[in-house]
Structure formats: C-alpha cells, structure tokens
TrEMBL record, chain A:
PROSITE patterns: ABC_TRANSPORTER_2. GO terms for molecular function: ATP binding; ATP hydrolysis activity. It comes from the Bacteria. This is Sugar ABC transporter ATP-binding protein. It comes from Meridianimarinicoccus aquatilis. The lineage of its organism: Bacteria, Pseudomonadati, Pseudomonadota, Alphaproteobacteria, Rhodobacterales.
TrEMBL record, chain B:
Pfam families: BPD_transp_2. This is Xylose transport system permease protein XylH. InterPro entries: ABC_transp_permease. PANTHER family: ABC TRANSPORTER PERMEASE PROTEIN YPHD-RELATED-RELATED (PTHR32196), XYLOSE TRANSPORT SYSTEM PERMEASE PROTEIN XYLH (PTHR32196:SF32).
Amino acid sequence: MNTRSTHAPIIEMRNIEKHFGAVIALAGVSLEVFPGECHCLLGDNGAGKSTFIKTMSGVHKPTGGEIIFDGAPMNFDTPRDAMEAGIATVHQHLAMIPLMSVSRNFFMGNEPVKKIAGINFFDHDHANDVTMSEMRRMGINLRGPDQAVGTLSGGERQTVAIARAVFFGAKVLILDEPTSALGVRQTANVLATIDKVRKQGVAVVFITHNVRHALAVGDRFTVLNRGQTLGTAQRGQITPDELQDMMAGGQEMASLEGSLGGTV
Amino acid sequence: MAEASSTPSDERVKQISPLRRALIRPELGAMVGTLAVFAFFILFAFDSGMFNSQGIMNWATVSAQFMIIAVGACLLMIAGEFDLSVGSMIGFAGMMIAIFGVTIGIPMWAAILITFFLCISIGALNGFIVIRTGLPSFIVTLAFLFILRGFTIFLPQMVERKTIIGGIREAAEGDWLAPIFGGKIFGSLFIWLGDAGLITVFERGTRAGQPVVDGIPMLIVWALVLVVFGHVLLTRTKFGNWIFASGGDAEAARNSGVPVTRVKMYMFMFTAFCATVFAICQVMEFGSAGADRGLLKEFEAIIAVVIGGALLTGGYGSVIGAALGAVIFGVVQQGLFFAGVESSLFRVFLGVILLGAVILNTYIRRMITGER
C-alpha cells in the first residue's frame, strides 16, 4: 500500500501559492496523491493546512502554481466544480442534519427519484436499502434507515459523511481533522473507515495534527509549517518523534518535550 | 453491497420500544389531542346539535379554514421560517378581489388571477428580504403584517370611502373561476341523503324538503387538497427532503448541494398562496371584503402547526399533524359554542394547549437527537 510509482497521481498540486493581501498563507506547496493512498497532511495550527485543502477543493483560487487532476490541468471556479470532478471534502462541521434520518441525510442533495404517473417521487425504498448496506459495509449497524442522525455518535456521523462522499463517486476524499473532536474508540472507528475507503481505490487526504492518528493509517506524510512544505516522507521512513518535531518546528518543541517527559 | 442488505437485524443494536418509536412521529400528539377533543364533546355536547349535519358542517368549515393556512405555515416553519403577515395577507387579498372585481369592475376571474399574482409576489418579496438580509423572518414579516394591514384599511377608504366593500357575490355571478372558491359540490348526494331521511331537511318555507346542508363547500375541498399536496410534497419528494434540510441546518444543506434559497423562497410564496385561497373562499362566502378580515390568523396558523408537532426552530414537523391541529382548533372553538360555554374561555384553552404542545415537542426533539 505504499510505493505507487507505477500509477499516475490522481491529483497533483504544484508549487501552490496563496496570498491573502499582504499575508502569504502558502508559499509554494507541492503534493501528489495516488489512488488508493492515504496521504496525511500534518501541521500545527496556522500552518496553512486549511488554506491548502480549500485550494484543492475549489474554495480558494491559488495565487500561483497549478493543479493537475487526473492528468489534466484544472481550474476549479467553485467548490461545486471540484465536487463534480470527484473531489469531496468532509468537514469538521459536518454536512449532517441531526433531526433527519440517516437515509434522508445520506441522499441529501442527491435524492433518488422514481416516476409514478409522470411525477418524480423520492424513492425511499431504494434510499433505505442503499443506506443500510453502505452503513453495514462501514461497520455501522443502524436500527433502521429512519434512525435520526442525532442519535449517532460523532465518529459514526463522520463515517456516514465519508460513506456518502464515496458512494457519490469521490475519487479524492479530503478529511479535515475528522478525529480532532472524537474519543479513543470513535477515533479508531473513523481510522478503520479511512482504511476501508482507501482499499476501494479512493485517494484520501487526511488532515490532522495528531501524529498517532496519522501514523495509524497514513501511507505518506507531508508536513506543512508556516505555509511551506517540509517534504513528504514514506511510511516506515520516519519516526513519530521526527514527525512531531517537523510539525512544531524543531527546537522549542525539543526543550518543551524534555520538561514534559516526552509524552506529547 | 447487495448481499449485505439481506442480512437480518443485528443483535448488538438495542431495540427501541414501540411506544418510543410512536412518540417520535411528529403528529402523534395531535392525533391523541384530536381523539381527546372528540371524546370530550361527544360525551358532553352530543345532544347540542354539534354532531348532526349542520353541526358537522359548522365545525368542519371552521377547521378547514384553519387547515388551509396551517398547511402553508407548516411547510414554511419546517423550512425554518415564519410568516406573521398571513392574517394581513388574508385581509389584503380579500380587499384586492373587491377593489378589482367590484370597484373597478373587471371580470371576477381576472380579479382572482391578479390577486393571486400580487399576493404571491408579496410572499416572494418577504422571502427575498429575509434571505438577502439574513434577518429573522419574524421581524421582516412583522413589518409586512403592518404594511399590508395598513393598505387594506387605506385602499377601500380611498376608492369607496368605507372599510367594507360588498357586492362580490353579484359580481361573481356566472363567472367560470369563482365557483372553484365559492361553490359547493356533491349537491345531489345531499339531496338524496335528505330524501332518504338521513340528514335534516327544511320543514317549511320556500326550500321545504331541501336538505339544510346542500353540499360540501369548496373551502373544505381546498383544505383537503392542500393537506394531501403538502403531505406528499414533504414526505414523498426530493423537494420535501430539501424543505427538511433547509430548516434543519441551512449551512449543512448548502454544503450538500441543496438550493436553500430557492426552497425558502418557494415556501414563502406557497404560504402567500394559501392565505389568498383562504381570502377568496371567504369573500365568496360572505359576499364582501372587510378591512379587519384575517386578524390574528397568523398566530392561529402557527399554533395549529405547533400543536401538530412541528418544531419552531424548523427541520421537523408534519402536514398531517398541522391539519389535525387545525381540526382540534375548529372543533373546540365551535364545540364550546354548542356546549354553551363562554367563548372567551376558548382563548384560555388555546394558550394552555399551545404551551403543552411546545413542551411536548421539545421533549420529543431531545429524544430524537439523543440530547440530554
């Protein structure tokens, strides 16, 4: 699951720069993601992770650099364009509505229809079947497709969002800190979901600032610091301590860690 | 993925009791309420004439009036917005019919179409301002409550020097569109029922032998059609899913590709449409339009919707529930009259049942979302 030099990358970001007025948020970041790979994007707060993925998903237009998607240069005008091309983002603040059922949420904005007497009706049977089987595949056992999303745990909601993105044809799945607000068991569930999705050949970009979570599922790791990339490492070529140091910018962190007994 | 769906239920998932499952249906409270209200009046007012043909027609008509505006208010509330201008819109629409059809004297069908166009445009304007400014719909539509009422009082005084314009029934004579709002259907069925001795007939006078209730007013037909339409739209279509989503969390809905702006806009227009239907049925029945028509109707519509199980915060509710809320409303209002109870007590009842419904709904919401 690591080296994929024989494949072409599904998305390639070359020398991306993004300036907001006088602030340089990204100063030439490059990254490539292959199908079936989980590429971890690490960095501390303010490192430029969010700006970078927003550029990837069409929210921001890069000031400089180019995006190659599926072998062709791409210029997404809106997030919708990116979505239609197959780049899906699952945000921290989920696109899930607690009062609605899992099945209604799953198909929100993409409702299956069935024609009866010339009128398009919501095909609830189809939606329910698909929701149940997709959720079971991800290891979530629903009481029924009409169970409200509000009754699911945070990790399960993330999983529903991921399953939905994949079902609707995401080739690149960007996960924006999916584990940051979760407990231990729920985190494990989400990481397991990432692994399942990767095995289906989807390229996953996993943003986190937790080195442990990254190392648990990542194939490759790119660290961002102050709008620049500090290089991409393969799995097995880097230790957790090295990753942690790169994220935090080395020096100060080493002394801090010393005082904390190396537990951070 | 196909083979997995055939697997039976999982033993690790806790089963919920049928009671709890029933409780999270939004219309349950209204169903229980409806049964309770009927049981009460059958016990205490059965001999008052409330349940003979005229009595039934009496409370059914009042309930149907509430139902028409409740359907619009219900869908709008589920989409996450309010419309406080419904009552003023009813007065305004009725007055427009009178001014165009009687004062100006254009054919009634044209007056009806122009009124629909005007009122739905005002509904759209309501929606446009709410969506563009991001202000609460409560404030924007409160402004229109006053604006429309003001015009409803001012315009007839300007053109006719009075606040009630009559002569609508005469102006609607022979019109092809007006009977859709003011007519009655199944007249022959009621004559047959009268002849068969199943319903009361006039005993003397020019109409002797004819049934007292001579057909189902179109008002009731409109109410039933709108309820069925609203219910099917909400629960069985793609657009219905968008209504829930827009009210549940507009941002999340937008992120998923739901055209929230369009949904809310259509719901404001639909609410205006319902208010206009109500107004036209009313002026056709009374034969006149008054500047004070529709007073407080916006609150009555909202109360019926809340009794029906919808959440004031949007994203949850039921058209069937709202319709039952309207029935509770109509039956109690008329029932107290039949039972000879002081009518001001109706307001006490309203306040109490509203409070009860809101508390029940909040509890149900906690149950659905698992909040504590």
